[in-house]
Design goal:
By secondary structure, this protein is mostly helical. Among the domains are: 104 residues, Receptor-associated Protein (Up-down Bundle), CATH 1.20.81; 106 residues. It contains 12 helices and no strands.
């Protein structure tokens, strides 16, 4: 299914990410769990709709929400797990380079990989253990290091792998290069952490406002307006006629829903811009729009 929508390469990359998070994961299990969660959301949504007597619009949107929300929520969860692992690996890279710099210049890759795999570098130690096994099975050192870079999908790890490749290919003593690179990576990561901390709050505020705050406020206001008794005002001969008033209220409700969608799209674009990946705006919007509309309908029915 995912191959039809995103292509074979994207599907393979996503499945590789699932396997990195958990060797027992697969695309099939991912979709099965998402559909099971969607069925549960659908049942709970139907029960809520009958209890609160929600309109046909909510019943129409509910199956779409029940399918999309678990799918993208699980995708985000797996992405967060992978990103957490990647950050852990990136933080260990300077220590690995310093350890590599302390090794004798004539050390073989197997010896270095075995030594690093026994160190307390978390997931990166496991990556060197995998690389050591690959070399023992006949793979070239360059290929094993390239596989580490591919599995981690990180420019910092890629740079580390490239330096190690150059070191083993040239046979020269690159201790000073490793140390300088380690110091450079530490300084770069410090700057990036400060930038991420400053932008994280802005991103979460945008997403929270688009998914909950703005729709809830508009939904509560629309519910209050629908609950007003305009009969006495009409008897006094002031204000709009009954038909005009209903048309105006319906226009206001439609406009509010369009505003929620527009706000969700803009919030998604800004959040993706903060992530330096505009492609994520589609994913954010696919989550925010159904969540925002659902919050609007529920708040309007209270």
């Amino acid at each position: 299914m995912i191959e039809k929508f995103f292509g074979k390469e994207k599907a393979e990359d996503f499945e590789a990410m699932l396997l990195q998070n958990n060797p027992r994961n697969s695309l099939k299990k991912f979709f099965e769990s998402s559909l099971a969660e969607g069925a549960l959301i659908l049942l709970l949504g139907l029960a809520l709709a009958f209890e609160l007597q929600l309109g046909e619009e909510f019943l129409f949107a509910l199956p779409i929400i029940a399918f999309i929300v678990p799918l993208f929520a699980n995708y985000f969860f797996q992405s967060l797990v992978f990103e957490k692992r990647k950050r852990e690996i990136e933080e260990a890279v300077p220590d690995v380079l310093l350890q590599a710099a302390s090794m004798p210049s004539n050390s073989s890759f197997s010896n270095i990989a075995e030594y690093l795999s026994r160190q307390d570098f978390g997931s990166l130690s496991k990556e060197f253990e995998k690389a050591k096994l690959e070399v023992e099975k006949g793979a070239a050192v360059q290929e094993a290091l390239g596989n580490i870079s591919k599995r981690c999908n990180s420019p910092i790890v890629e740079r580390m792998a490239l330096l190690l490749k150059q070191g083993f290919e040239s046979g020269n003593d690159l201790s000073s290069v490793f140390r300088e690179t380690a110091e450079d990576i530490i300084e770069t990561r410090t700057i990036l952490k400060e930038r991420s901390a400053a932008l994280a709050l802005q991103k979460m505020t945008l997403l929270f406002a688009g998914a909950l705050i703005v729709p809830l406020v508009l939904g509560l206001i629309s519910g209050l307006i629908k609950g007003f008794d305009f009969a006495q005002v009409s008897e006094l001969g002031i204000g709009l006629a009954e038909a005009q008033r209903k048309e105006l209220i319906q226009t206001a409700l439609t406009t509010s829903q369009l505003y929620i969608i527009e706000f969700a799209i803009l919030a998604s674009i800004f959040a993706a811009f903060i992530d330096s990946n505009l492609k994520k705006s589609v994913i954010y919007a696919a989550l925010l729009i159904p969540a925002g509309l659902a919050a609007f309908y529920i708040a309007g029915a209270l």
